[in-house]
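Please produce the structure of this protein holding octanoyl-coenzyme A.
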Amino acid sequence: MSCETIKVHVEADKVGVITLNRPKQLNALSDQLMDELGAALKAFDAEEKIGCIIITGSEIAFAAGADIGAMAQYSFVDAYKGDYITRNWETIRSIRKPVIAAVSGFALGGGCELAMMCDFIIAADNARFGQPEIKLGVIPGSGGTQRLPRAVGKSKTMDMVLTGRMMDAAEAERAGLVSRVVPDSQLMHEALGAAIAIAGFSRIAVMAAKESVNRAFEGTLSDGLMYERRLFHALFATRDQKEGMDAFVNKRAANFTHQ
Ligand code: CO8
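Below is the modeled complex.
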């Protein structure tokens, strides 16, 4: 796959790594970048050997938001009719394999929203998160007002969205936005460690776990609990469940075949 705004490679034969690559614009998320990102995510999702995907940026920026230069002159009609800057933003929601955001530097506006669309965020200690759209005369447009409160609550979300201030990595970890913070030099090592571990588990169980956790943000508790129970029961139809439990009982390493 030929890409101009992202780099794509495979680690350990089972982890797909996508690196956002518009360094001069601090990885601002252009339509082209979002198209290429969506295509790369779909390709990794469809590739049998891949068990987990990482999205990362540079040391300076994960992504500094949607491309302000490109959208500055758009009218409402342009934006609405062309589905401008929205059309490929939700592709990531359709990805069934886990997606980790490995965030270093700025994750602002659409960059913060992109990180939040991932299944979890591992942050470098220099990471900074923010929804500064208010300073541009607009509001977050790709989930910032919806996913951020689910992650950090109303008060901190209102603070971030209304003042446009940034949150550093330590505050983001305290608030529950990120799952771990590591020294910047360790970011990819840490993210790859998590991704390789995930890719070694039963792919069916991993996808079911992701689906079930995401369900917690969609409906009622009783619906979510029922959904989880049904998936849990269904996993007893897989060979991987037999293998995983047999391996535990017989004190050996499990060899999952994703069936
Ligand atoms: N878009 C385009 N170019 C950008 C962006 C951006 N978001 N951010 C930085 N750049 C460019 C700068 O213009 C500059 O280019 P040049 O060298 O040609 O002048 C280069 O990157 C470096 O930037 P700075 O010189 O500003 O670097 P600093 O270190 O001084 O500052 C900051 C770094 C703080 C990150 C600063 O660049 C900044 O504030 N950037 C804008 C952040 C922002 O407002 N992001 C939100 C954008 S709006 C948005 O994301 C809405 C999302 C809605 C999604 C809807 C989808 C459905």
